[in-house]
Protein backbone atom coordinates (compact mmCIF):
# COMPACT_ATOMS: atom_id res chain seq x y z
CA UNK A 1 0.00 0.00 0.00
CA UNK A 2 1.02 3.59 -0.56
CA UNK A 3 1.19 6.05 2.35
CA UNK A 4 2.06 9.74 2.52
CA UNK A 5 5.03 10.87 4.63
CA UNK A 6 4.36 14.43 5.82
CA UNK A 7 7.30 16.69 6.68
CA UNK A 8 7.70 20.42 7.26
CA UNK A 9 8.98 20.68 3.67
CA UNK A 10 6.11 18.84 1.98
CA UNK A 11 4.61 15.39 1.36
CA UNK A 12 6.34 12.26 0.03
CA UNK A 13 4.81 8.97 -1.20
CA UNK A 14 6.15 5.69 0.16
CA UNK A 15 5.20 2.11 -0.72
CA UNK A 16 4.80 -0.20 2.30
CA UNK A 17 4.02 -3.87 2.86
CA UNK A 18 1.99 -5.32 5.75
CA UNK A 19 5.11 -7.03 7.09
CA UNK A 20 7.15 -3.82 7.13
CA UNK A 21 8.04 -2.76 10.68
CA UNK A 22 8.23 0.84 11.82
CA UNK A 23 12.00 0.43 11.90
CA UNK A 24 11.88 -0.77 8.26
CA UNK A 25 9.98 2.39 7.30
CA UNK A 26 12.64 4.55 8.93
CA UNK A 27 15.34 2.69 7.02
CA UNK A 28 13.44 3.24 3.74
CA UNK A 29 13.19 6.95 4.50
CA UNK A 30 16.94 6.99 5.23
CA UNK A 31 17.73 5.22 1.94
CA UNK A 32 15.40 7.36 -0.18
CA UNK A 33 15.78 10.78 1.40
CA UNK A 34 19.02 10.61 3.41
CA UNK A 35 17.41 11.24 6.82
CA UNK A 36 19.19 9.09 9.41
CA UNK A 37 17.05 6.64 11.39
CA UNK A 38 18.15 8.10 14.73
CA UNK A 39 16.84 11.53 13.66
CA UNK A 40 13.33 10.30 12.80
CA UNK A 41 10.08 10.18 14.77
CA UNK A 42 6.94 8.91 13.01
CA UNK A 43 3.36 9.48 14.18
CA UNK A 44 -0.22 8.86 13.00
CA UNK A 45 -3.18 10.68 14.56
CA UNK A 46 -0.86 11.74 17.38
CA UNK A 47 0.32 8.14 18.09
CA UNK A 48 4.09 7.79 17.95
CA UNK A 49 4.89 4.64 15.96
CA UNK A 50 7.02 2.13 17.90
CA UNK A 51 10.00 0.51 16.16
CA UNK A 52 9.16 -3.07 17.25
CA UNK A 53 5.69 -3.08 15.66
CA UNK A 54 4.72 -3.65 12.02
CA UNK A 55 1.89 -2.41 9.79
CA UNK A 56 -0.45 -5.23 10.85
CA UNK A 57 -0.20 -3.85 14.40
CA UNK A 58 -1.49 -0.48 13.13
CA UNK A 59 -4.85 -1.19 11.41
CA UNK A 60 -5.46 2.57 11.33
CA UNK A 61 -2.73 2.78 8.66
CA UNK A 62 -4.37 2.07 5.29
CA UNK A 63 -3.90 3.15 1.68
CA UNK A 64 -3.33 6.91 1.59
CA UNK A 65 -2.77 7.36 5.34
CA UNK A 66 -0.63 10.38 6.22
CA UNK A 67 2.31 9.64 8.53
CA UNK A 68 3.92 12.65 10.20
CA UNK A 69 7.72 12.68 10.14
CA UNK A 70 9.59 14.81 12.67
CA UNK A 71 13.32 15.23 12.12
CA UNK A 72 15.67 16.15 14.97
CA UNK A 73 19.35 16.90 14.16
CA UNK A 74 21.56 14.21 15.68
CA UNK A 75 23.54 16.71 17.73
CA UNK A 76 20.28 17.81 19.42
CA UNK A 77 18.69 14.38 19.69
CA UNK A 78 18.64 12.50 22.98
CA UNK A 79 17.27 9.35 21.30
CA UNK A 80 19.13 6.05 21.60
CA UNK A 81 18.48 2.54 20.31
CA UNK A 82 18.30 -0.29 22.87
CA UNK A 83 18.01 -4.03 22.26
CA UNK A 84 15.28 -5.67 24.33
CA UNK A 85 15.58 -9.44 24.74
CA UNK A 86 12.45 -11.40 25.70
CA UNK A 87 13.03 -15.15 25.79
CA UNK A 88 14.24 -15.95 22.24
CA UNK A 89 13.01 -12.66 20.75
CA UNK A 90 15.21 -9.59 20.33
CA UNK A 91 13.63 -6.25 19.49
CA UNK A 92 15.00 -2.83 18.62
CA UNK A 93 13.26 -0.04 20.54
CA UNK A 94 14.07 3.65 20.32
CA UNK A 95 14.00 5.49 23.66
CA UNK A 96 15.08 8.80 25.12
CA UNK A 97 18.11 8.81 27.42
CA UNK A 98 16.03 10.60 30.06
CA UNK A 99 13.06 8.25 29.70
CA UNK A 100 12.00 6.35 32.82
CA UNK A 101 12.03 2.61 33.42
CA UNK A 102 8.22 2.76 33.67
CA UNK A 103 8.00 4.40 30.24
CA UNK A 104 10.17 1.68 28.71
CA UNK A 105 7.90 -0.97 30.27
CA UNK A 106 4.93 0.72 28.57
CA UNK A 107 6.69 0.50 25.20
CA UNK A 108 7.50 -3.18 25.77
CA UNK A 109 3.83 -3.73 26.67
CA UNK A 110 2.82 -2.07 23.39
CA UNK A 111 5.11 -4.36 21.38
CA UNK A 112 4.76 -7.61 23.35
CA UNK A 113 1.32 -7.30 24.95
CA UNK A 114 2.46 -8.59 28.37
CA UNK A 115 0.84 -6.85 31.38
CA UNK A 116 3.15 -4.11 32.68
CA UNK A 117 2.96 -5.45 36.26
CA UNK A 118 4.58 -8.71 35.11
CA UNK A 119 7.65 -7.10 33.54
CA UNK A 120 11.05 -7.13 35.26
CA UNK A 121 13.91 -5.43 33.39
CA UNK A 122 17.59 -6.30 33.84
CA UNK A 123 20.72 -4.56 32.58
CA UNK A 124 24.18 -6.05 33.17
CA UNK A 125 22.65 -8.49 35.65
CA UNK A 126 21.05 -5.74 37.78
CA UNK A 127 17.28 -5.45 38.05
CA UNK A 128 15.91 -2.00 37.19
CA UNK A 129 13.40 -1.98 40.05
CA UNK A 130 12.45 1.67 40.35
CA UNK A 131 10.02 2.72 37.63
CA UNK A 132 10.50 6.45 38.27
CA UNK A 133 14.27 6.38 37.67
CA UNK A 134 15.72 7.44 34.31
CA UNK A 135 17.37 4.85 32.06
CA UNK A 136 20.63 6.83 32.13
CA UNK A 137 20.75 6.38 35.93
CA UNK A 138 21.11 2.63 35.32
CA UNK A 139 23.90 3.25 32.79
CA UNK A 140 21.74 2.61 29.70
CA UNK A 141 23.36 4.01 26.56
CA UNK A 142 23.08 3.56 22.80
CA UNK A 143 22.82 -0.15 21.80
CA UNK A 144 22.56 -1.41 25.39
CA UNK A 145 20.89 -4.83 25.75
CA UNK A 146 18.05 -5.10 28.26
CA UNK A 147 16.72 -8.49 29.34
CA UNK A 148 13.05 -8.94 30.21
CA UNK A 149 11.74 -11.52 32.67
CA UNK A 150 8.09 -12.20 33.45
CA UNK A 151 7.04 -12.16 37.10
CA UNK A 152 4.82 -15.01 38.28
CA UNK A 153 1.76 -13.48 39.98
CA UNK A 154 0.34 -16.51 41.78
CA UNK A 155 0.88 -15.63 45.41
CA UNK A 156 -2.53 -15.91 47.03
CA UNK A 157 -5.53 -16.62 44.91
CA UNK A 158 -7.46 -13.72 46.40
CA UNK A 159 -9.38 -11.67 43.90
CA UNK A 160 -8.45 -8.00 44.25
CA UNK A 161 -11.25 -5.55 44.93
CA UNK A 162 -12.36 -4.04 41.59
CA UNK A 163 -11.44 -0.38 41.22
CA UNK A 164 -13.56 2.20 39.45
CA UNK A 165 -11.80 3.88 36.52
CA UNK A 166 -12.57 7.28 35.06
CA UNK A 167 -11.65 7.11 31.38
CA UNK A 168 -12.04 9.01 28.13
CA UNK A 169 -13.22 7.15 25.03
CA UNK A 170 -12.34 8.91 21.79
CA UNK A 171 -14.22 7.80 18.69
CA UNK A 172 -12.91 8.21 15.14
CA UNK A 173 -14.68 10.00 12.28
CA UNK A 174 -16.02 6.71 10.92
CA UNK A 175 -18.08 6.06 14.08
CA UNK A 176 -21.06 8.41 14.26
CA UNK A 177 -19.52 11.79 15.06
CA UNK A 178 -15.96 12.04 16.29
CA UNK A 179 -16.21 12.71 20.01
CA UNK A 180 -14.48 12.32 23.38
CA UNK A 181 -16.77 10.63 25.91
CA UNK A 182 -16.03 10.39 29.65
CA UNK A 183 -16.96 7.00 31.12
CA UNK A 184 -16.74 5.28 34.49
CA UNK A 185 -16.18 1.54 34.54
CA UNK A 186 -14.64 -1.10 36.83
CA UNK A 187 -11.15 -2.32 36.01
CA UNK A 188 -12.51 -5.87 36.20
CA UNK A 189 -14.73 -5.17 33.18
CA UNK A 190 -13.70 -6.70 29.87
CA UNK A 191 -13.38 -4.77 26.63
CA UNK A 192 -16.60 -6.50 25.51
CA UNK A 193 -18.36 -5.21 28.67
CA UNK A 194 -17.25 -1.67 27.81
CA UNK A 195 -18.37 -2.13 24.21
CA UNK A 196 -21.85 -3.26 25.32
CA UNK A 197 -22.14 -0.31 27.70
CA UNK A 198 -21.27 2.15 24.92
CA UNK A 199 -23.70 0.42 22.55
CA UNK A 200 -26.51 0.64 25.12
CA UNK A 201 -25.82 4.35 25.55
CA UNK A 202 -25.80 4.73 21.74
CA UNK A 203 -22.27 6.13 21.82
CA UNK A 204 -21.22 3.46 19.28
CA UNK A 205 -23.14 2.21 16.23
CA UNK A 206 -23.75 -1.51 15.71
CA UNK A 207 -20.87 -1.62 13.23
CA UNK A 208 -17.75 -3.61 14.05
CA UNK A 209 -15.07 -1.63 15.85
CA UNK A 210 -11.90 -2.17 17.88
CA UNK A 211 -10.28 -0.41 20.85
CA UNK A 212 -6.69 0.81 21.21
CA UNK A 213 -4.92 1.61 24.50
CA UNK A 214 -1.41 3.07 24.39
CA UNK A 215 -1.05 1.97 20.75
CA UNK A 216 -1.94 -1.65 21.59
CA UNK A 217 -5.04 -3.29 20.09
CA UNK A 218 -7.16 -4.44 23.02
CA UNK A 219 -8.41 -8.02 23.29
CA UNK A 220 -12.18 -8.27 23.66
CA UNK A 221 -12.24 -10.95 26.37
CA UNK A 222 -9.50 -9.44 28.56
CA UNK A 223 -10.16 -7.01 31.40
CA UNK A 224 -9.14 -3.37 31.51
CA UNK A 225 -6.84 -4.22 34.44
CA UNK A 226 -5.11 -6.89 32.30
CA UNK A 227 -4.43 -4.22 29.67
CA UNK A 228 -2.88 -1.94 32.30
CA UNK A 229 -5.60 0.72 31.95
CA UNK A 230 -5.51 3.40 34.68
CA UNK A 231 -7.83 6.26 35.62
CA UNK A 232 -7.31 9.22 33.31
CA UNK A 233 -6.28 7.08 30.32
CA UNK A 234 -7.82 7.55 26.88
CA UNK A 235 -9.11 4.60 24.84
CA UNK A 236 -9.41 5.10 21.08
CA UNK A 237 -12.13 3.40 19.03
CA UNK A 238 -11.83 2.77 15.30
CA UNK A 239 -14.24 1.22 12.82
CA UNK A 240 -13.35 -2.22 11.44
CA UNK A 241 -12.32 -5.70 12.52
CA UNK A 242 -8.90 -7.18 13.28
CA UNK A 243 -7.86 -10.46 11.71
CA UNK A 244 -4.28 -11.64 12.21
CA UNK A 245 -2.64 -14.55 10.42
CA UNK A 246 -1.08 -17.15 12.71
Automatic annotation (TrEMBL):
BP-aspect Gene Ontology terms: proteasome-mediated ubiquitin-dependent protein catabolic process
Domain Ubiquitin-like as annotated: residue spans: 1-60, 80-151, 165-237
Gene3D superfamilies listed in its UniProt record: Phosphatidylinositol 3-kinase Catalytic Subunit, Chain A, domain 1
InterPro entries: Ubiquitin-like_dom, Ubiquitin-like_domsf
TM regions (residue ranges): none
Gene Ontology CC: cytosol; nucleoplasm
Gene Ontology molecular function: polyubiquitin modification-dependent protein binding; proteasome binding; ubiquitin binding
Annotated protein name in UniProt: Ubiquitin-like domain-containing protein
Species per Swiss-Prot/TrEMBL record: Kingdonia uniflora
